[in-house]
Amino acid sequence: MNKVRFGIIGIGKMGSQHCMRFTHGLIKNAVLTAVCDIAPERKKWAEEKVVPKGVKFFDDYKSLIDSGEVDAVLIATPHYDHPVIAKYSLEKGLHTLIEKPAGVYTKAVREMNELAATKPELTFGIMYNQRTNKLYRFAKELVETGRLGQMKRINWIITNWYRPQAYYDQGGWRGTWAGEGGGVLINQCPHQLDLFQWLGGMPVSVRAHTEIGKNRNINVENDVTAFMEYANGATGVFITSTHDFPGTNRLEIDGDKGKLVIEGGKLTFTELAVGETEFNAVNKKFMPRIPSKKIKKHIGLLGQAKMFLFEQHTGIINNFVSNILFKTPLIAPGEEGIRGLTISNAIHLSGWTGEKVTLPIDEERYIEELEKRKEEERASAKKKV
Q1: What kind of architecture, by CATH, is found in domain 4-130+308-335?
Q2: N or C end of the chain: smaller count of CB under 10 Å?
Q3: Residue 204: left if φ>0, alpha if ψ -120 to 50, beta else—which one?
Q4: Which 8-state DSSP code applies to residue 308?
Q5: Distance between CA atoms of residues 371 and 62, nearest Å
Q6: pTM
Q7: Each residue of 195-231: pLDDT tens digit?
Q8: pLDDT of 381 above 70
């Protein structure tokens, strides 16, 4: 195989952008050969934008997958469909790349992962494009090499997802349990929840407060505060919303050997000359300061634009293709999609029940509670799908 033949399933906002990455030559060693969507207006878009370039259009995913026109698919459909279509694709022997989130609930994603594990010859990836960000990659290096030391605390305030009522009104599926499967956690924050665990590891318990439709006519959460505990005694706080303006995007990780802060396109690492635990064991001063040095990294506006065009979504697709052709290690293996989703599900479950949730979560209870909300939604006079 010299070039990977791609099919894109779902050519809405994200899917159409992925199409343009192929047709504009940003994806190396691959070619777009087919697209699929059930919406008539998206068929019209395809007939204007990609069909003239030799790309075939299908109106259902099974026909595209069964067509023999593709070696790999990129799934960019609504969230509930990701595991369903991915399983069909994997069963049919196609390399499979899914958009985030991996799904709405972990049971479906776990079953998808179990199937993928039986197909080691196939490449299975997820669109965690934020893992290509140089600042987060440097943070990952600091964690993995031990320079940060054992984590004490990880906090992320991510409240700059401002979404007015008009945003939710543009599509019937937005802001609903039946359509999206959640709000800010499942729509806006999958990348941050992935990075939260990618850098900090998985917590052992979660306690959360979630508010439904705060200042918005929606059925799902748009304001979240979650507290997490880790096996080593570390703690984590994750705060997010879609109604704050202006918002904040600040990640802090405190370790025994220093502190890491990422905010506003800047990373600052304060590296201690000696770990705090070691220093404390021998220190005799009443109010000492541990000697330290600062390491700073910055991505300017030009760098951010370059990163968006060539390194994020484009980088994940190119890496996926390279894994198929050259066995290049995946930046975002598909099976890792369950981790951030597990935290998301745990936050929901704690918010719904008012209880502390231990991981792994009770998958059946989560589905039961989700179905309750969908049933309430169907009976409500508020927004419906």
Answers
A1: 3-Layer(aba) Sandwich (3.40)
A2: N
A3: alpha
A4: I
A5: 27
A6: 0.95
A7: 999 999 999 999 999 999 999 999 999 999 999 999 9
A8: no
